[in-house]
């Protein structure tokens, strides 16, 4: 990228024909047992790939789950060390935060790529530029079902997931609280989407 990346460069849709019923599920704030474990079991059963946007302190607390996420073939994103609002920090502080998180991930899974950055709260400041300098592209979203606290029941989340657009990146959470409703909603929605002709994918760096 010749010029400094900005908001125009964040990923909200995967690279696919605009009409393709393709969707990318992303899960933030983990790893977080037991919800992440149940989610991984579900995604493995359904053979659905996803992006896991990891928080550094959670990585340090649950390295075995990070290994499983990678072993199961999912894609990693850096979601900061402890979910601070990076827009409030200087570029150097953002760099230190994201590098610390990368180091924690690579201490567990040295060979796993971390192609994406997801901003806590979707607040960017200088973080898009700093993430790019560290080799990560910023992953935004087309649809947020607002499964954070107070977490709505699964049937509400299922209804909101009806807002997925072709190629859309969907923001969900496996951490930050009790995410059993999210896992249940994903469990219900995968077969429905498949029946309607949707396929599941993950974003690419050039997407
Ligand atoms: Zn988050």
Second rung of CATH, namely the architecture = Alpha-Beta Barrel
Number of domains: 1
Distance between the termini: 14 Å
Broad shape: globular
Largest sheet: 8 strands, parallel
CATH class: Alpha Beta
Give the SSE string.
EHEHHEHEHEEHEHE
**What is the structural class?**
alpha/beta
Global mean pLDDT: 95
**Count of DSSP strands:** 8
Low-confidence parts, pLDDT < 50 over ≥5 residues?
none
Q: CATH superfamily, called what?
A: Glycoside hydrolase/deacetylase
Heterogens: zinc ion
Provide the CATH topology.
Answer: TIM Barrel
Strand percent estimate: 5-15%
Pfam family, one: Polysacc_deac_1
Protein name: Polysaccharide deacetylase family protein
Organism: Cellulomonas dongxiuzhuiae
InterPro entries: Glyco_hydro/deAcase_b/a-brl, NODB_dom, Polysacc_deacetylase_ArnD
Describe the structure.
This protein is of the alpha/beta class and 207 residues long. The chain has a single domain, classed as TIM Barrel, CATH 3.20.20. The chain is 36% helix and 14% strand. The chain contains 7 helices and 8 strands, in the order E-H-E-H-H-E-H-E-H-E-E-H-E-H-E. The protein has helices spanning 35-46, 56-61, 63-71, 91-108, 127-133, 154-160, 180-195, and strands at residues 22-28, 50-54, 75-78, 116-117, 137-138, 143-144, 169-173, 199-200. Strands 1, 2, 3, 4, 5, 6, 7 and 8 form an 8-stranded parallel β-sheet that branches. Strand 3, helix 4 (91-108) and strand 4 form a beta-alpha-beta unit. Helix 1 runs parallel beside helix 7. The mean pLDDT is 95. It binds zinc ion. Zinc ion binds next to loops.
